[in-house]
Amino acid sequence: MPEMTQENRRKLVKTGMLSAGVLLLAALLVIVNYFGWKYYKRFDWTSSQLYSLSDKTQKVLKGLKSDIDFIVFMSPEQRDLYQSTNELLQRYGAASRHVHVKTIDLEKNPVEAQALTQRFGVTTQGVVVTSGKDKRIIATQDLAEIDSQSGEPRITGFKGEQLFTSAILQLSEGKKPKILFITGHGEHSLDDQSGHGLSGAQQLLGRDNFDLSEWASLGQAAVPPGTDLVVIAGPTTSFVQPEIDALSAYLNNGGRMLVMLDPTVSSGAGGGLVATHLEDWLGRYGIKVGQNIVVDPASMLPFFGPETIFIKSYGDHPVTKAFAGGNVPVLVSLARSAGAGSAPGIKVTDLLRTSDKGWGETDLSHLPTISLDAKDLAGPVAIGAVAESALTAPGKRPMRLVAFGDSDFATNQLLQANADNGLLLSNTLNWLVEREALLGIPAKKTEQVRLTLTGEQIRRIYLVVALLPILAIVLGGVVFSRRRR
Question: What pTM did the predictor assign?
Answer without folding.
Answer: 0.70
